[in-house]
Amino acid sequence: MAETRYIGIDGGGTKTVCILGDAEGNILAESRGESSSVKSRPWEDVQRVLLTLIRDVLYQSGTEMSQLGGIFLGLAGSDRPEDRKRISDWLQTELPEGVPITVHNDAVTALAAGTWGQKGIALISGTGSIAYGFDPATGGFVRVGGWGYLLGDEGSGFDLGRKALVAVMRAYDGRGEPTALTRLVLERWSLQHPGQLINTIYGQDNVRTAIADGSKLVMRAAADGDPIAVKLVEEAIQELEELVKTVITSMEKQQPIEESDSHHLAENTIPLVITGGLFSDQMFENRFMQTPLIRSGMFDVRLLERPPVIGAYLLALQERGFELTEVMKQRIAAFVFRK
Question: Which residue numbers delimit the ATPase BadF/BadG/BcrA/BcrD type domain (predicted)?
Answer without folding.
Answer: 7-316
